[in-house]
């Protein structure tokens, strides 16, 4: 199908609605946030309209640098874990019958209906000493006494991967389902084992999808602020947790906004870098 | 049961709940004289609507329209902006100590005439909030205690002092509140180790308290923002010690849960809110009648029994039985938070605190 370039003003009409939505729900709030990030914090009230760089100045410190670094590292790790688990899973899922696929997808969608709070509390129970899975291990004779698996980095990572996994599968699914089966058949005829064919043919063929999925999960994980609180120690709190503290508990909107703008800029830069690297590679 | 105040209202749900309540102010009875009263949304508003306001209207003929205040400092900001426009969304409001101090800086509160409060002399000193020049800005409305709580199965004998938090034997066993401005642990440290909260007067004193408090870190398993998270862990023994609300812990113990609340010998932490009158309100007379009514011994007793708040009057003036009194308060001198610090140095304290616990 060939796309014709829009000729008249009316051809642009379908863009009006999405454009309007984008302005109302993204451009306006985000611009407000950028504006607020330059306002003067008033400890006795809220903020006063001004132009100051203090909010950004306060952020540039070793402490916040470390928190930002940790947040980015955690999100990247969540993204990699999710794709590493979801990609083979989704690939195998597409090999199943239509009915089996439907059941799995419905199950995954139902996991999406759980809120972050429910996921957090469920995992905190599962990882607890008094009621957690280690009791099962004791019963099986694998452990001597139940232990608490939280708060810990592993618990935070598990909770966040669990939360993001359904999204990952749902994003990968359409691409994998549409993958031309003859590619694999060709590899098999040429003597490749199924595992080898998967890594040498399927994965490279879908490299762009994989990169796009990693980015999506990364951005998704970056906004998480409840799971690190429920499952982690204070050193596992992400920048989003500190933004919440400032905005809700300290009524320091300018500083919260400055941190949020910084977080958005850094993640945009990382996404841009990834896409840029991907394009260069493809051009070779 | 989920009450008390501002900081405790966790991020979740509170917004939704208060938005809903805000839309429906409760008019008790249309009468000539009326008063709009702001109370913390949720539990407090419900208890006041059921137990306190109808009695007040009966006794004084002043109709009450109760308004659920939103969380945090949002209500202070709304009152302030409305007052600039000459409006009063509420005549009388329940206001946290820190917000009362912040409102003082813009003269937001109509001074209260102490001569018109019959039991003014019976009020405990810290329930009278004064402007720097001595005028009364607010009178104690509700108060509650944060105490040392333990799981009775893990700790057969109750600890006696806040110093238990520092005991190496309690490694990885504590649940503490996550914010400097709602845990009041600096005050606890100062009272327990440095002779009193006056030790926090200077920055050196504050830093010393931070350093001492940092020693507690290895013992802390959970820094909680959401009380449900800790309450559950305390009951199950997962986190067997920590700081928590005296009244709620007492109710859990009465339900048969293996928990206890102890007033340490240094005193429990007493947090509270004031009644304040917006300067834009034209109903200062009715407001005085209301505050006078609320500060009577019989009403303070009713509040302790029905709402679970600690009385604002001296114990000897009250009609509470020893059991009723112990359920909400204690005669051990309380640790009163240094609210002035959270007004003047809040950003610095918050930054130091976050660096201490997350660093």
Which tags fit this structure?
heterodimer, A: MetI-like fold, 13 helices, 2 strands, 71% helix, 1% strand, globular, B: alpha/beta, D-Maltodextrin-Binding Protein, domain 2, 2 domains, disordered N terminus
Q: How does this model look, in words?
A:
- The complex is a heterodimer of chains A (284) and B (359).
- Chain A is 71% helix and 1% strand.
- Chain A is mostly helical and 284 residues long.
- Chain A has a single domain (55-283), classed as MetI-like fold (Orthogonal Bundle), CATH 1.10.3720.10.
- In chain A, helix 8 crosses helix 9 (194-205).
- The longest helix of chain A has 33 residues, at 62-94.
- Chain B is an alpha/beta fold.
- Chain B has 2 domains: 6-143 and 270-328, D-Maltodextrin-Binding Protein, domain 2, CATH 3.40.190; 145-269 and 336-358, Periplasmic binding protein-like II (D-Maltodextrin-Binding Protein, domain 2).
- Helix content of chain B is 39%, strand content 19%.
- Chain B contains 14 helices and 11 strands.
- Chain B has helices at 11-22, 43-60, 74-84, 97-104, 180-183, 185-193, 203-214, 227-236, 246-254, 284-294, 297-306, 322-328, 339-344, 346-358; strands at 26-27, 33-40, 62-69, 92-96, 128-130, 136-151, 174-177, 220-224, 241-245, 259-262, 269-277.
- In chain B, strands 1, 2, 3, 4, 5, 6, 7, 8, 9, 10 and 11 form an 11-stranded mixed β-sheet that branches.
- Chain A binds chain B through residues 41, 43-46, 58, 63, 67, 117, 121, 124, 128-131, 148, 151, 229-230, 234-235, 237, 242, 244-245, 248-252, and chain B through 7, 11-12, 72-74, 76-77, 80, 102, 105-106, 178-179, 181-182, 221-223, 225, 229, 233, 236-238, 343-344, 346-347, 350-351, 354-355, 357-359.
